[in-house]
Specification:
- By secondary structure, this protein is mainly beta.
- It has two domains: 194 residues, SH3 type barrels (Roll); 51 residues, Ribosomal protein L2, domain 3.
- It has three helices and 16 strands.
- The strands form five sheets. The protein has a six-stranded antiparallel sheet, with no helix packed on it. The chain has a four-stranded antiparallel sheet with strand order 7-6-5-8. It has a two-stranded antiparallel sheet with strand order 1-4.
- Strand 5 and strand 6 form a beta hairpin.
- The N terminus and C terminus are likely disordered.
Length: 268
């Protein structure tokens, strides 16, 4: 991308609005979020949840088609609902949107949202998988065209495009699994920001409680009425195959249904 194009984009994106009007537009991107206590009509439906600090939800742009060509990154912010940082992008028409940013992006950088082919892609741009270079880290990967970002969304995680064929591309996911994706799926170049998040340590139990997580108790420490592993005197093992509180096996059983076909692999 040449300098003259950058200069024109910045000039068009730098729309002069009053501060009150700009704050009103940004405020619409922030929604109220009720606390998830794991209860439904008084009964527990999700265990080990409760407490936590109040959070607001930021509506993010996840590879959806905005019909925008370029955007100007105005600010990089902290999001309490995810590990990666988010950026506030302003478009040429004056509208704003939140998005996940890469680790190398800076404020006032130009981000490309065009789905057409360009020869000057850079980290942080959105593009279709068919135009992504092989061997470059990608994230915010769609499961099938139009699904929105599903894979590689955490801080510091990324996938690699290994090969591209006529209709599908093989991607190595962060887990090491290799899958085929439709070349019309949207992806983002780069690595999600906050790459040192995995080194973060919680030095006290109160930190976890602030994250809406309550203590977890072992089944062998319960009574027989509370868990199949409970009961007995001074034992540390269940004495039986490991099961859930409802008696279902938790180890050595398949977790996927073989009769369901993946939409992103089998498609007419």
């Amino acid at each position: 991308m040449n300098f003259n194009k950058n200069k024109n984009i910045v000039k068009l994106s730098d729309v002069s609005f009053s501060k009150d009007y700009t704050d009103l537009i940004i405020k619409k991107l922030i929604l109220k979020k009720n606390k998830s206590l794991g209860r439904s009509y008084g009964s527990i439906v999700s265990w080990h949840k409760g407490g936590g600090v109040k959070r607001n939800y930021r509506t993010l742009f996840f590879n959806k088609n905005l019909n925008k060509d370029y955007g100007l990154l105005r600010n990089i912010e902290y999001d309490p609902n995810r590990s990666a940082s988010i950026g506030l992008v302003q478009f040429k028409d004056g509208s704003f949107s939140y998005m996940m940013v890469t680790s190398s992006v800076k404020v006032y950088d130009i981000i490309n949202f065009s789905q057409n082919y360009h020869f000057d892609w850079k980290m942080g741009d959105f593009l279709k998988l068919r135009y992504a270079p092989i061997g470059v880290p990608i994230y915010n990967i769609e499961k099938y065209p139009g699904s929105g970002a599903i894979y590689s969304r955490s801080a510091g995680t990324y996938s690699l495009l290994l090969t591209k064929e006529l209709k599908y591309g093989k991607i190595k996911l962060p887990s090491g699994e290799e899958r085929l994706f439709d070349l019309d799926c949207n992806v983002t170049l780069g690595i999600p920001s906050n790459i040192y998040n995995k080194f973060h340590k919680r030095y006290k139990a109160g930190t976890t409680r602030l994250l809406n997580r309550r203590p977890t108790v072992r089944g062998v420490a319960m009574n027989p009425i509370d868990h199949p592993h409970g009961g007995g005197a001074a034992k540390t093992t269940a004495g039986r195959p490991k099961v859930s509180p409802w008696g279902k096996l938790t180890r050595g059983v398949p977790t996927r249904k073989k009769n369901i076909k993946n939409k992103f692999i089998i498609k007419n």
